[in-house]
Amino acid sequence: MAQAKIEVKFGNICFSGEGDSAWLESQLDKLLAAAVNGTEAPAAEVHHGAATRTGKAGAGAGSLAAFLKAQKATTNQVRKFLATACWLSLKGENNLTTALVTKSLTDNRQLKLTNPADCLNQNVRKGYCEKQGKKGFFVTEEGTNSLETVAE
After folding, report:
1. 107 contacts: CB under 8 Å, gap ≥ 6
2. Is the pLDDT of residue 113 over 50?
3. How far, in Å, are 22, 74, 114, 119, 142 from residue 133 at the CA level?
């Protein structure tokens, strides 16, 4: 079957997927039904590509340890920083800072980063994060996609 890509946002519900068109259509139907009914969308399955979705704040993010393992981000510190920032975004956090990433790792009993500021700067250089204001940053679509690519 032909590969297709889609990205849709409905308020606080977001869906991004890549795979065969029939599978994407079924996932989109589930998302639309959830949006219309005002219920939380079911978790997406990974199938012939990647799909990510956030429903209500925190939906489908799971534990940080499981998320880091799924993203293969347990040993590389720059990748761990990026994955933790993505996890926080999935949890509904909009104001990301290096201190928040560090605190999240500590609170979730994960090994701390040696130099979180350098991890952020390396992700900015790669185009995976962009600085916002004096202390804040956000994860770019390229950053999210880089995690999905390796996790497959």
Report:
1. none
2. yes
3. 42, 29, 24, 18, 20
| 43/7 Cα distance (integer angstroms) | 16
Q: What is the DSSP string of 57-120?
A: TTTT---HHHHHHHTT-SS-HHHHHHHHHHHHHHTT--SEEHHHHHHHHHHTT-PPPS-HHHHH
The residues, ordered by sequence, that sit 6+ positions from 5 with a Cβ below 8 Å of its Cβ are 17, 18
Q: What is the mean pLDDT of residues 105-123?
A: 96
Comparing 32 with 79, which gets the higher pLDDT?
79
Residue 87 pLDDT greater than 70, yes or no = yes
Residue type, 112: K
Q: What is the per-residue pLDDT for 98?
A: 96
